[in-house]
Amino acid sequence: MARDPRYDILFEPVRIGPKTARNRFYQVPHCNGMGYRDPAALAAMRGIKAEGGWAVVCTEEVEIHHTSEITPFIELRLWDDRDIPVMERMTGAIQAHGALAGIELCYNGLSGSNLHSREIPMGPQALPISTFMPDPVQGRRMDLEDIRNLRRWHSSAVRRAVRAGFDIVYVYAAHGLGLPQQFLSRRLNDRGDAYGGSLENRARLLRELIEDTKEAVGDDCAVAVRIAADELCGEAGLHKEEVHEVIAMMAELPDLWDLALSDWDNDSVTSRFGGEGEQEPFVAGVKALTTRPVVGVGRFTSPDTMVSMIRRGVLDMIGAARPSIADPFLPRKIEEGRLEDIRECIGCNICVAGDFTMSPIRCTQNPTMGEEWRRGWHPEILRARESEARVLVVGAGPAGLECAQALGKRGYEVALAEAGMEAGGRVTRESRLPGLAAWARVRDYRLQQLHGLANVELYFDSALGAGDILDFGFDHVAVATGCHWRRDGVARHHRTPIPVADGTAVLTPDDLMAGGRPAGKTVLVYDDDHYYMGGVLAELLADEGFAVTLATPAAEVSAWTRTTMEQHRIQARLIEKGVTIRPHTAVTALGPEGVRTACVFTGREGAIGCDAVLLVTARLPEEGLVEDLKAREEDWADAGIASVRAIGDAFAPGTIAAAVYSGRKYAETLDGPPDTGDTVPFRRELTALEDPVRGLTVDPACTPVRGSGRHPDSSGRRDRASPSRGGTGRARRAR
Ligand code: ADP
Ligand code: SF4
């Protein structure tokens, strides 16, 4: 199908300095938890974005110098020439598909604790390091020599970036992470020299770095600036008016302006707290200040919103991190007129959690994210089926839906049986809770895909038992029957049930999602789950007029949502809605009048009166069906059944992302070699060992340098081998 002409404007080329972007789709820099540890996987992930039609594909922040690094977070590094081959792998993967490769060079200054290098961080003034952890590290004030050094290091990194083949090199002054922003912001810059005081002075370092970068890149590489559009702390910090002034001062100096709210949690707001295009008020007006292209983000998934951003003169290019993670093929789908195939980001920030947990990126909507290289998965292309096997999938929650659609795309004949009258399972239920409506996209995308698959049948009102399944005679049975919340208080703090006195009103999230409500007025929510559910249900009950207390053994509400960068918003919302929060509190016994509690530190006992208790604790898999089938294993052969496996929450309750991934994994591996656990079922890279004498890195899977420690020419000369230019040798991948 051809694209709708009203989207033509999105496919106009855009000039960025000496380069031309083929369209207006711009994958802005984003973290991914892979960085220097998983470079091949990272390159493949970026390459898929280019294949999916993005005109520009950027790295995450790239540390330019060992005196500024953000361990334990895993980003890319360009500390010296030995890092160039990793970068070349990425530029190659991106440019192979006709996209421009951008690199976000970063000197973290007061946002990097240097836990790895143990160098003392430095910034505009002496202050404790502000990062995502309260490391006991303070930075020192940079003097003029430090600034000269920094400028030289930055230029060296720029030259390395150009050697690695990047088309666009960034000066990074955003998210509170880039040093030039720290100089710009009056709350971090108290200097009395030429780099402090007036806005012009505070902007001096940014100007110098842009000028240095322009000089270092030469004629065939563009220079972009990523700048904080607002720090959202009013006059105390960098704010929109000042930022616009800075842009006006240097309007034509860089080749592109990329705007992002600061800090990162303000930039990547979850859908619970912000909608599509919500940064527009901060970016509007910038285009009038410069002729250079302006990029901005806003979790854009609707092509109509994108067109409106361009037509109304807000942006020149549609910046995206999360929409490009959820659907690396978003531009191609618009171009090919396949809007219904767009896998829209749900704004859950599970992708961000990858970075915060230092694990490879994952995405709720896109189970192939981060698996492109290590498992060979592709977001759009699946291996053709390898047999005529017919598969029954039981349960149409996220695991069952993903499993059925992926099996269908492989060409298998599939029946998807759902007990209820609607699809989506937990996603449908949870998307009805406050702020979670966008999560229904997980269901909607997969239902849409099923409509286009003649080989997949979806049956509602089909609660299947073991007998039914044996009668049907499918070759394989995937059981995706989900899970239920426990009613006995067992979770993390309590590993055995909490005593419950007769007459106590105990509810679980399932009860509330099914429409049940407490009989009285006061409810205690006991959250020993620590993700979103406890906070969301406290909000729901408060909205409905209940007097709500939320007790948790953790220090804060919904503690794990720190990794999705929304914990502070959740806690603020609950406080605003009048929910009483009792941290560090374990519930030890439940009764009709209330609960007994214990301080998690001292064990000191207490009590909280309430009419009902909502237990948000652990969940139990719905494994009855698998057990019934296993109990009749001797009948399988007659019924033609070769395998029965639980997937998703029915195998082990987890996130929606984990359920989708589980469904995909089943579909990707059906008819493949059995995973017995005896070999690692995915590719990984190993650190290349350095030869003790030559200093050369050697591939640990290959024979080390001849003579183990002696230089092969026996001259005794220490050949430190000039750092590689061509990307060979120094960082060879272990097979
Ligand atoms: P997951 O997150 O693993 O996909 P969900 O709980 O979201 O799990 O979805 C499970 C789905 O399975 C629900 O829609 C439920 O109605 C359905 N289901 C549970 N038991 C059966 C059964 N025996 N036969 C058919 N469908 C079932
Ligand atoms: Fe969007 Fe969630 Fe995927 Fe991140 S993990 S890209 S927020 S759907």
TrEMBL record:
<feature type="compositionally biased region" description="Basic and acidic residues">
    <location>
        <begin position="710"/>
        <end position="722"/>
    </location>
</feature>
<comment type="similarity">
    <text>In the N-terminal section; belongs to the NADH:flavin oxidoreductase/NADH oxidase family.</text>
</comment>
<dbReference type="InterPro" id="IPR054428">
    <property type="entry name" value="TMADH/DMDH/HD_second_a-b"/>
</dbReference>
<keyword id="KW-0479">Metal-binding</keyword>
<dbReference type="InterPro" id="IPR013785">
    <property type="entry name" value="Aldolase_TIM"/>
</dbReference>
<feature type="domain" description="TMADH/DMDH/HD second alpha/beta">
    <location>
        <begin position="507"/>
        <end position="581"/>
    </location>
</feature>
<dbReference type="GO" id="GO:0016491">
    <property type="term" value="F:oxidoreductase activity"/>
</dbReference>
<keyword id="KW-0408">Iron</keyword>
<dbReference type="InterPro" id="IPR001155">
    <property type="entry name" value="OxRdtase_FMN_N"/>
</dbReference>
<dbReference type="Pfam" id="PF22620">
    <property type="entry name" value="OYE-like_second_a-b"/>
</dbReference>
<dbReference type="InterPro" id="IPR051793">
    <property type="entry name" value="NADH:flavin_oxidoreductase"/>
</dbReference>
<dbReference type="Pfam" id="PF00724">
    <property type="entry name" value="Oxidored_FMN"/>
</dbReference>
<dbReference type="GO" id="GO:0046872">
    <property type="term" value="F:metal ion binding"/>
</dbReference>
<keyword id="KW-0411">Iron-sulfur</keyword>
<dbReference type="Pfam" id="PF13450">
    <property type="entry name" value="NAD_binding_8"/>
</dbReference>
<protein>
    <submittedName>
        <fullName>NAD(P)-binding protein</fullName>
    </submittedName>
</protein>
<feature type="region of interest" description="Disordered">
    <location>
        <begin position="693"/>
        <end position="735"/>
    </location>
</feature>
<dbReference type="GO" id="GO:0010181">
    <property type="term" value="F:FMN binding"/>
</dbReference>
<dbReference type="GO" id="GO:0051536">
    <property type="term" value="F:iron-sulfur cluster binding"/>
</dbReference>
<keyword id="KW-0560">Oxidoreductase</keyword>
<keyword id="KW-0285">Flavoprotein</keyword>
<feature type="domain" description="NADH:flavin oxidoreductase/NADH oxidase N-terminal">
    <location>
        <begin position="10"/>
        <end position="338"/>
    </location>
</feature>
<dbReference type="InterPro" id="IPR036188">
    <property type="entry name" value="FAD/NAD-bd_sf"/>
</dbReference>
<dbReference type="InterPro" id="IPR037348">
    <property type="entry name" value="TMADH/DMDH_FMN-bd"/>
</dbReference>
<keyword id="KW-0288">FMN</keyword>
